[in-house]
């Protein structure tokens, strides 16, 4: 955590071992800062617009190209009265201003890096900064037009470019800073009314994927390796209409594009493509038919090793590109709030939780997806976090968040600090310092209660699940559990799960309790046969209202047990002449109360 407090923190980027970020400290306005991630490591790079809290230069478009960090500021006005300024930082040096070829302050609408070269767009122009120079110059081909979007691939910037007065409006162009050329006129007919209007999705090491309208299929999936012949139509998702891929809804894993188009057959689902029609298909129709399985307005795909992580609304999915390997990991308490970042095999992101917006982490499993940190709040301090966005700085993840403030402190409620998570450290293991226990009356219509236990680290989120005979009871998720008659004879236990920022959820299973059942006798035992010496008596076995019972027997002569007479039959011995014979039956069943029954006695035993 940095000790420096900010009113707000905006764009952030890692460069040269430090994090550069745009922030308002409440004194200088919004300016550029840097930090090495330590508590006292936040320093102001430069007060570009000196003049107090309302005079910030609001740096934008932080972009790394080679060994330079470029950014734009509003730190003054140029000869035309426009607030603008383009700067770069090389290594650990001080900011250096760039000028255009006429010596004027540089104005930009956006920056894109292609290797060591920077491209800048302004209004209808594309300009570049040659590596090692400090001048923003026009492209040599005097390229001027309406620049919509761009993407870097193979040392070139690919553009949706419309040349002023030209015959190819809004087509696919590319430039390496020395030469600008049309890649392909995708919609060549009918003059200016036909334009393919490329919309770039993602790149691989072989080419780029984009959407374009050839005036026949509508805007659909295309692929290009940078050559005219290698630029081809791939797939028609919505015949005669064109498809839509939302921002964040496309990513490449290796040479495969994963994306979420709206298809006329499947609705909005996860697809994959290798750039050929045969290799383009839906990965999994999560909701069969045209009903959408993916929330197109709240979707983001991120490459996670050889798999893709898909956030769809509040759901996190993982896919290896097959239907069987596409599974729901977990449902989050709220939706994704920022672009996820990846460190190693884990993905970090900010999303809603019971403590507000916090930093989450996932390894692609339900148990490994949890709120990692809420910044300046923990399980003890009250309040909700407002963590927004994460940035990778080496092996660390840095994010801004609001923090706990004791009553009477001088900071505003929504002031923020930067917090750092060291991803190399082992996970904190949450454990029960006092295990949850079950108490209450174990009787029909009784109520059991389970304690929450004590946990370290403390857990603000405790959930409960009751089980009967090892199976979860639907809806039984409260600390108390009502014992219905149908639970008689069955084992009952609870699982208490503790969760909260800082550690994986941890669960404890309580010791099982048994609600003893009651056996109801539907037929009492009796003795069949004549009570005479040498004759055999038989038991008419009793019946109860439960299956799976066990019966044991003991024969009596008067009030005394007859030795070894423990079977369902008994041959009357001569020594018991004159005695009355009876039998005791013990009926048992696991987890039921034992029932002991006594048959009516016979008449006195007579001679043979």
Can you characterise this structure?
The chain has 608 residues and is an all-beta fold. The chain has no helices and 57 strands. Strands 5-6-7-8-12-11-10-9 form an eight-stranded mixed sheet, with no helix packed on it. Strands 31, 32, 33, 34 and 35 form a five-stranded mixed sheet that branches. Strands 43, 44, 46, 47 and 48 form a five-stranded antiparallel sheet that branches. Strand 25 and strand 26 (281-284) form a beta hairpin. The protein starts with 7 loop residues before the first strand and ends in a 10-residue tail after the last strand.
Topology:
Blueprint: E1 8-15, E2 18-24, E3 30-35, E4 43-46, E5 60-65, E6 68-72, E7 86-90, E8 96-100, E9 110-114, E10 117-122, E11 125-129, E12 135-138, E13 150-153, E14 156-161, E15 171-175, E16 180-184, E17 199-203, E18 208-213, E19 219-224, E20 231-235, E21 250-253, E22 256-259, E23 262-263, E24 267-268, E25 270-273, E26 281-284, E27 299-304, E28 307-312, E29 315-319, E30 326-331, E31 341-343, E32 346-353, E33 356-362, E34 370-373, E35 385-386, E36 391-393, E37 396-402, E38 416-422, E39 431-434, E40 438-440, E41 447-450, E42 454-456, E43 461-468, E44 471-472, E45 480-482, E46 491-499, E47 506-509, E48 513-514, E49 521-523, E50 526-528, E51 536-540, E52 543-544, E53 550-557, E54 560-561, E55 569-571, E56 581-588, E57 595-598
Parallel strand pairs: 8-12, 33-35
Antiparallel strand pairs: 1-2, 2-3, 3-4, 5-6, 6-7, 7-8, 9-10, 10-11, 11-12, 13-14, 14-15, 15-16, 17-18, 18-19, 19-20, 21-22, 22-25, 23-24, 25-26, 27-28, 28-29, 29-30, 31-32, 32-33, 33-34, 36-37, 37-38, 39-42, 40-41, 41-45, 43-44, 43-46, 46-47, 46-48, 49-52, 50-51, 51-55, 53-54, 53-56, 56-57
């Amino acid at each position: 955590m940095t000790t420096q407090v900010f009113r707000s923190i905006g764009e952030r980027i890692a460069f040269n071992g430090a994090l550069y970020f745009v922030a308002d400290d409440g004194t200088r306005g919004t300016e550029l800062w840097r930090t090495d991630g330590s508590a006292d490591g936040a320093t102001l790079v430069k007060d570009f617009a000196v003049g107090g809290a309302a005079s910030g230069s609001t740096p934008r478009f932080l972009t790394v190209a080679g060994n330079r960090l470029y950014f734009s500021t509003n730190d003054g006005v140029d000869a035309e009265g426009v607030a603008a300024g383009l700067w770069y930082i090389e290594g650990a040096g001080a900011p250096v201003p760039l000028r255009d070829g006429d010596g004027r302050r540089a104005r930009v609408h956006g920056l894109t890096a292609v290797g060591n070269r920077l491209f800048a767009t302004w209004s209808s122009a594309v300009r570049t900064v040659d590596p090692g120079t400090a001048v923003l110059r026009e492209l040599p081909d005097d390229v001027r037009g309406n620049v919509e979007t761009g993407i870097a691939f193979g040392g070139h910037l690919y553009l949706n470019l419309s040349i002023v007065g030209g015959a190819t409006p809004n087509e696919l162009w590319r430039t390496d800073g020395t030469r600008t050329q049309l890649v392909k006129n995708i919609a060549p007919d009918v003059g200016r009314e036909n334009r393919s209007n490329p919309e770039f999705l993602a790149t691989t090491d072989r080419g780029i994927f984009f959407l374009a309208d050839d005036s026949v299929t509508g805007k659909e999936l295309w692929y290009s390796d940078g050559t005219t012949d290698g630029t081809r139509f791939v797939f028609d998702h919505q015949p005669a209409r064109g498809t839509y891929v939302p921002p964040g809804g496309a990513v490449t894993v290796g040479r495969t594009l994963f994306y979420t188009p709206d298809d006329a057959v499947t609705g909005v689902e996860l697809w994959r493509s290798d750039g050929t029609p045969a290799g383009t298909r839906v990965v999994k129709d999560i909701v069969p038919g045209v009903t959408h399985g993916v929330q197109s307005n709240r979707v983001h795909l991120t490459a996670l090793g050889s798999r893709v992580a898909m956030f769809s609304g509040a759901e996190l999915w993982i896919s290896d590109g097959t239907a069987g390997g596409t599974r729901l990991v977990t449902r989050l308490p709220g939706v994704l709030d920022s672009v996820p970042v990846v460190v190693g095999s884990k993905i970090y992101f900010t999303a809603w939780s019971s403590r507000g917006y916090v930093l989450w982490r996932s390894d692609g499993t339900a148990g490994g997806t949890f709120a990692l940190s809420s910044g300046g709040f923990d399980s003890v301090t009250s309040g909700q976090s407002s963590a927004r966005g994460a940035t990778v700085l080496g092996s660390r993840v840095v994010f801004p968040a609001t923090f706990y403030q004791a009553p009477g402190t001088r900071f505003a409620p929504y002031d923020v600090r930067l917090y750092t998570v060291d991803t190399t450290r082992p996970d904190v293991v949450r454990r029960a310092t006092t295990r949850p226990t079950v108490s209450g009356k174990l009787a029909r219509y009784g109520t059991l209660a389970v304690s929450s236990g004590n946990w370290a680290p403390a857990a603000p989120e405790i959930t409960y699940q009751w089980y009967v005979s090892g199976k979860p009871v639907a809806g039984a998720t409260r600390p108390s559990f009502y014992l219905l008659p149908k639970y008689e004879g069955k084992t009952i236990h609870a699982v208490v799960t503790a969760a909260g920022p800082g550690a994986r959820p941890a669960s404890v299973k309580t010791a099982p309790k048994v609600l003893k059942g009651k056996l109801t006798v539907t037929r009492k035992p009796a003795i069949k046969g004549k009570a005479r010496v040498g004759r055999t008596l038989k038991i008419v076995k009793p019946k109860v209202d439960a299956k799976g019972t066990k019966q044991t027997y003991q024969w009596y002569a008067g009030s005394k047990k007859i030795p070894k007479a423990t079977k369902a039959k008994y041959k009357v011995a001569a020594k018991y002449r004159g005695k009355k014979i009876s039998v005791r039956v013990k009926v048992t069943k696991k987890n039921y109360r034992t029932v002991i029954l006594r048959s009516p006695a016979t008449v006195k035993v007579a001679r043979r």
